[in-house]
Amino acid sequence: MKPIIQLDIKALTFPDEQEPALKNIKLNIIEGEFIAITGGAASGKSLLLHAITSAAPKFYPCTLSGTVKVADQDVSSIPLCQMADYLGYMMQEPQNQMVNRCVGDELAFGVSNLNLSQDEIESRVNEIMDFLGIREFSGRYTDALSGGQAQKVVLGSILAMKTPILLLDQPTAELDPKTSTELYRYLGQLNREKKVTTLVVMDKSGEVLKDADRVLVMEAGTVKDFLPVAEYHQKYGCRKNNRHLEPLQVNENTDIIRLNGASHTYKGGITGCHPLNFNLKKGDFTAVIGQNGSGKSTMLKLIEGLVKPSSGSVELFGTPVTKKNVGELRRQIGFLFQNPDDQIFCSSVKDEISYVLNNKNLSEHEQDQKIQETLALIGLEGLDEMHPQRLSRGQRQLLALGSVVINDPELIIADEPTSGLNGPQSQVVMEKLARLSSQGVSILLVTHDLAEARDFANRIVVMHNHQLALEFAAENMDDYLDDLVRLELMEGGDDKCLT
Amino acid sequence: MFNLNKLDPRLKLTWCLFLVLTALVSRSILLNGILLGVILISELLSEKTLKNFKMLTVVLLIIGSQVLIINLLFGREGELLYSWGILQIYSGFIATSILAFLRIGIISFSAYQFGIHTDTMDMAQMLIHWRIPYRYAMLVPMVARFLPVMIGEYQSICNSQSARGVPNDTVAEKIRNLPASILPLMYRAMRISNDAALSVELRGYGRHASRNFQKKINLHPLEGMTIVCLIIGFGGVLIKTIL
Fold it and tell me: Is residue A391 helix, strand or coil?
């Protein structure tokens, strides 16, 4: 069988770094193979894809000793823009990769660069819109798309180019479970029928393993294992029901959050959410799940006071939220955003952690002690002076959690805090939240990961079509699988189970 | 039905330039008034509403009131109507103010109309027709995409700061927090442009000397004739003004 990608990387080293970021990687990928790539934080998964595209060293200056061949061509001799003849590459953070104002133009961007005829461009764009189910927002502006929609558009733009190789870095990180299952099914179909060689950096769900042939396990910049999926399952095991069983101290008489028929309609009449009646008790750990665009984020914005209710009211800690008291109420809440970079703005880990302490009357010694305790809690001891942007995405999410926890909040609102993180990184973040929850902190978690909701929350609330559709105890999730299928949160069939 | 969005960008640009230059050349309040009226009517015919101009009208009214005050205080055209100390009011201040207001109105409305009714991809194609390499012409749609993205990024930084207890609701508070917001914004701008640059390169940007488009611009003969008429019309106004 003919290898389509041949890697023989002795060392890939960034300037001013002693240790190579990639080293001793020698492997062949056969034409038509479907490879899942996994590994811990900073293990070199994304960098490996950069090396295959030749972006490292052509775009990211570094020294590469060794060779990378794609379709028998040494990529070092192919200009970066010509790599589009061989491969399509989707990086993380889809919003950063879109360069056109309209969705239609973005989908046509790649194929237009290939100088195809107008009819061919039109036909490919139509084909991909129908497949990804994005025709309804083809006329929309790209900056108005949700994370999941943006991910589909960027992917569509790459798939329309019909390259023989696809490199995808966590392509479903921001998609809901059903859409990501559909996407992997399509990638599998594309791989089987069109022999498209596919390399996917695996997200925490592991859904990709259903279609993958082999799994490449990376560790510390090198290949730890490269083995068939069955062997991978045997060696590394599958994610099982891992329900967090530490008892929670829920006070049924105290409402921390109360939405009294609160709704919100955005400018232009776009529905954010219909009237919601919801409460979160003291000490409760509630997970909100729902498809992309089901209204979860609007619900959070209502609670955070970032948007005003169009009808109804919001109460926090028993007090109705008004423009005057929202600032005061927010001080008792810790917000953990989906993207840690949304809340990191200081130039060192220590400054970031201690930001909220500036307004408190604490001595320097007390501040230092609190900072060290928090760093120990989030596992970032010794990194006090490091610039936050030098940390990995998982570490930045932990830093964001630390900057929230240090304020001793009564309530933590976490908006998909594990999106874009791999399994072990997600586990660490969720375990920290679970520990806080068992200490009496109320937690409201928004997630796409049903298993995560089941394992860590004690109550699950489902949003569908901008309203609350279902509510049940997390431990009883297995009894509600049919409802979750009906609400399009998971695939139907006899083998329905959480991955 | 008449739809400004569907017109060729070259016609829209000529129309915009005709309006701006005529407004600057002509001193006739009547002509300037007619031009402003034509802009509003064309917008109304195309969109069935003037709501696109709502914000701009408010801004223009504020500017217009300032123009009126400045002309009232400092205008020296016409006859002296009133004098009190150093304050002297001349009869010409109203006409001058109206003319200035109409000119500002025509320039702003026509430029705004061109901007909102011309697809950025059409602008890029127009530049390519003028022999500007597509790598540069395509900067127009790219910039149009990044402006709202950066505004969104700034908003998310402000939201996260206010979520962490930093007052960031009023303009004064936003100005006070600017240093803390600008640094992460700059970092994000660099990271986004970096990712975008790699993404376009790997999607074949610059792969060929030319580039095709999904929807091509096409100058209809009637549009070509209209462009010629507008140029002749402006020539007429220019000659009439000079003579």
Answer: coil
